Amino acid sequence: MRHIINLEVENHSGVLARIAGLFSARGFNIESLSVAHAEKEDVSRMTLAVRGDDAIIEQINKQLNKLIDVIRVIDITANYYVDRELVLVRVNCPPNKRGDIQQVNEIFGAKVVDISNKSMTMEMVGSEAKVDAFMETMRPFGIQEVARTGPIAMLREFKKKY
Amino acid sequence: MKNKMTGAEMILHALKKENVGAVFGYPGGAVLDIFDKLYGTDIQFYLTRHEQGAVHAADGYARASGQVGVCLATSGPGATNLVTGLATAHMDSVPIVAITGQVHTHLIGNDAFQEADVVGITRPVTKHNYLVKSVHELPIILKSAFYIARSGRPGPVVVDVPKDIQQQICPESYPDKVEIRSYKPTVKGHPQQIKKAAQMIAAANRPVIYAGGGVVASGASAELRELADTADIPVTTTLMGLGVYPETEAKALKMLGMHGTAYANYAVQECDLLIAIGARFDDRVTGKLDKFASKAKIIHIDIDPTSIQKNVKVDLPVVGDVKLVLAEINKVIEKKQNTDWIQTILTWKKEHPLQYNGGSSISPQYVIEQVEKVANRETIITTEVGQNQMWAAQFYKYTKPRTFLSSGGLGTMGYGFPAAIGAQVAHPDKLVVDIAGDGSIQMNIQELATAVLYHIPVKIIILNNQSLGMVRQWQGIFYDRRFSSSCLRRNINCPPHCDGSGDMCPKEYVPNFVKLAEAYGAAGYFADKTEEVTPTLEKAFNTPGPVIVEFKISEEENVYPMVPAGAPIDKMIKGMA
Question: Which backbone phi and psi does B503 adopt, to 5 degrees?
Answer without folding.
Answer: -65, -25
